[in-house]
Amino acid sequence: MSALIDPAQLAGEECLVWLESIGDLDYVRQSLDRLPTRAGRPAYHRDGRMVGYAVLQPHARSSRTSGTFLRRVFWLLPHDRDGMPDGLYHSGAPSEAVDPRTVAPGIKGYKTERSEGGPPSHAMRELGITLPQA
Description:
The protein is mainly beta. It contains 1 helix and 5 strands.
């Protein structure tokens, strides 16, 4: 889950590679995957599609026990909002979702009103709570 990513785990990121335009995506799912390399397109074994991934700096260290590297992978499932606008995530977003405009190397990103599916709820407005605009 996105909330469980410790920013220290992203310290070795050099750049993010987007495999498609993120301009029309309200959110992407992100996860930290154990991968055998620092760079290159990782294998993808989930439903849906990979949208992007992180490339690590040459000095990024591997795990002492497994020899693998923690790298972020960004992805979407077939029932996500971009594929089913009136579906399960018509409003709201999965727990591992972030607005892709808030993500950068070493920055885990966050949810925004856009990633949550639109304008703030009545309760949020009453309490004066706002999510960042991206």
